[in-house]
Amino acid sequence: MKVRFLVLLVGAGAAAAACANPLATTATLPTIDDTAAVFALTGAPETAPTAINVTFPRAVIATPSEQYDVVFDIRHDSAFAYPPHAIGATLTAGLQLSSQAFAAITDAPTAGYNDSLPVFVKAGDVLLVQSTSAQCANQSVAARTFIYAKIVIDSIFYDEAAPPHVPRTIWYRLRNDPNCGFLSFADGIPKN
């Protein structure tokens, strides 16, 4: 009788440990770094990238058939980052400027993102992105439907840029956490 009770107790303990958090998920992909340039949306060559897709970090052309999260434009001597809603797209992403240095940001904030207004940017600014990614659409927990990224604006070349720089371009570095709902920007596979 004591052995049967002990086996039952051990079995119940193992089952409880296995089911401790049925909503917990595990990251499977490491953080990704990318460096590239985009053209200003206004006046860009037809085949030039003008936006960033942060889910699969790459510069893309802001067209209705493309997935993107941040669009850049230069107006006179000012540069702006636009969430898709700000230019009339149906895609959803939110932006916010950070006062922290790019390297100092170890986790993405979960609040404070603007999904409808442009953000003025200058060289050195750090932009945080919360993307509602189609890749995460099957997640049952709402907080897990986002991909997070941080972007630092390395340089902006306005109309008067001299060679070898290309006028009306914005150079950036990006780090994303490609795991749905994970916030960490640490090297490797995130824990949170």
Structure notes:
It is a single chain. This protein is mostly beta strands and 192 residues long. The chain is built from 1 helix and 10 strands. The strands form 2 sheets. A 5-stranded antiparallel sheet has the order 1-10-9-8-6, with no helix packed on it. The protein has a 5-stranded antiparallel sheet with strand order 3-2-4-5-7, with no helix packed on it. It is globular. The model is unreliable at 5-20 (pLDDT under 50).
Give a nutshell description of this structure.
With 192 residues, the protein is mainly beta. The chain has one helix and ten strands, in the order αββββββββββ.
The stretches of 5 or more residues where confidence is low (pLDDT under 50) are 5-20
Average pLDDT rating: 87
Determine Rg (CA atoms, Å).
21 Å
Content-based structural category = mainly beta
Largest sheet: 5 strands, antiparallel
Regarding quaternary structure, how should these chains be classified?
single chain
Arrangement of strands in the largest sheet: 1-10-9-8-6
Overall 3D form: globular
**N-to-C series of helices and strands:** HEEEEEEEEEE
The N- and C-terminal alpha carbons lie at a distance of 44 Å
The level of helicity is under 10%
Please report the total strand number as a whole number: 10
Strand content: 25-35%
Number of helices: 1
